[in-house]
Design goal:
2 helices, five-stranded antiparallel beta sheet, Jelly Rolls, about 40% strand, single chain, six-stranded antiparallel beta sheet, mainly beta
Length: about 180
């Protein structure tokens, strides 16, 4: 398993070892002991699975505020997407900075998103499925969003006219949110 740091501390790209032959392939997407040996000691408690029909589907930017903020391990199992995380930690030297990584069924990369970050993605193909593990259960009372097109953050989503939910269209800008990191 290969771990590559990104420009934002604690956001990691994880590339599992893939073993293939004429029958197909096998990989461990998560192994608690191996992750702990690499300094990632997270106890995941919930798995989520999302399906997106059309290219250009944008979900995000989502997070749970404290005390139920979540660490996520994200991967794409069908198609391809641009996965984006934004640092919401006010005392961080990378506050309001973002990093994006293409995740696909083909490259099998995963993204470790620590708590204190907003998360979102845009699909790059039709029929995209993604899965992610979280270390805290879903908390409707702490579920929050910020605008995907917040000019203070300036994410480059590409030249795709996004398909967005009403919830994400009406999300506040970061300056108007109650993010408490």
């Amino acid at each position: 398993m290969k771990i590559t740091p990104t420009k934002i501390k604690d956001v990691l790209v994880i590339e599992p070892d893939v073993f293939g032959d004429h029958r197909g392939w096998f990989m461990e997407s998560y192994n608690k002991t191996k992750f702990a040996d690499m300094g990632i000691d997270v106890e995941f408690v919930q798995d989520n699975h999302s399906m997106n029909v059309a290219v250009g589907t944008l979900r995000g930017l989502h997070f749970q505020k404290a005390p139920t903020s979540q660490t996520k391990l994200v991967r794409c199992i069908k198609g391809a997407l641009l996965d984006v995380v934004v640092d919401l930690r006010k005392d961080s030297p990378t506050y309001k900075e973002w990093v994006g990584e293409e995740l696909s069924a083909e490259n099998k990369k995963q993204l470790m998103v620590p708590e204190g970050f907003a998360h979102g993605y845009i699909t790059l193909t039709d029929d995209v499925e993604m899965q992610y593990k979280v270390d805290k259960l879903y908390s409707p009372e702490n579920d929050r969003s910020i605008r995907f097109d917040d000019p203070e953050i300036g994410i480059n989503w590409g030249n795709i006219d996004p398909i967005i939910s009403d919830k994400d269209k009406s999300a506040p800008f970061l300056k108007d949110s109650d993010a408490n990191f």
